Task: structure prediction
Amino acid sequence: MTKAGKAVKRKGKGEKGQDIAQQNGSPEAKSKLESPRSHRRYLILTLILLVVLCFLLYPSISSLINSMQEVRHASEKRENEKEPDKDLKLKETPPESGPDAHEKKTEKLDTGKLNLKQKSTKELPEEVRNFKPTVLDKLVAKKIFADGRRLPPIELLHQKPNNSSVRVYLFDDFLSEAECDGLRTVHDRHVEETSKLNPVICFDSISTLRRHIKDAKKKIKVTPRDFTQGTTCLNTSFSHEFKDWIHGNWSYSTAFYPGESRFSKVFAARVEQATALKSENGGKFQITSYPRGIGYKTHTDCVLNGQDKRDRFATILVYLQDVAKGGETKFPELGIWVKPKKGRALVWNNMNANGECEPLSVHNAAVVEEGHKYIIQRWFYYKSFYSLGRRPPEPHLPLRQPGQPRVSCDEYENGSCRWYDEWNYEHIIDYEQTKHTLI
Result:
């Protein structure tokens, strides 16, 4: 190749390089070169923004994840335990017992029905299998003498026309002044001692708890998960908080059972002599005190339309102290009301001779306006059962300290909150599944 040819070739390469250089200097070339750089810049900015957003949103995302895990775990737990709906109202549990006949629902178990959970008849102790129940189907009031006192009955006639079988009788001075004073003193001492521990508060349903929270004007949401496992009771800290909300506004009940004191035998014999209410059909003895501002809503002591004949046929209560104002026992459907008077006994039947709960036996305890009201009461059952009148074993739930009292709040429309020195099974969720085996 000639030198001229080589020069031409070199010139061609140089021109090509020059053409490229010229192209690189054009707007299109610059755009092509800058495009990757812009993409890298946008990518870096995007990553920075994502990091910042993750940092800002981390607490919320973490909380959401934890909540979802808790819900999942709770759901799995309920599924594994096969727990029934906790927003329940124990269907057959007796309504509250007492204006002066306090605690219907709890009383049915307090009288001593033992929880023998699904045991067959063959597994029951021989004395239980051989127990012969007695039926109490009448109330007969008559004059008696006690410690030199003449005690004639006074029948309180219905002031409203009706076909009810309910009969109401009054005995003045049924208990002596010394007996009344002694019972009050023992009760007050026991309440003071037991109240050193804050009570655990239980409800019949989540709806009742919500009603009480609404009355306390607290804007908090509660669910059945706020109850301790297997119960409809609050834990100790929530119970203490709830107590402050309602200012510990409740009555106080202490109990003793037949044979636990000499007085139990004296009182039972006097009642049977004056009313024909058989001791073997009687439950525990309960002393209840009502501070100022406390009463008890209208209710029956028996279960309306109930099928179980092991129900409260009759009630006797005795006032242990005069009340300056308020505290009357009222039967609104009968037009009867009775003023508290020290030593005065009031007795009536709640069921008819066929063992059916009388709707017109509804009664209430008027709010104590001045003073302090004390009563002792006992319920007599239409059909007796083996554990009636025997102190029952206490349930292991909820977890609590030895001797820790309970407060039962249920039947919002017909009941109230009541403090008790003993425990029963009404707050146990599976009670509905096992109570048919109680004896």
User: Anything to note?
Assistant: The longest strand covers residues 282-290. Confidence is low (pLDDT under 50) at residues 1-25, 29-33, 73-118. Residues 27-81 form the longest helix (55 residues). The two ends are 126 Å apart (CA to CA).
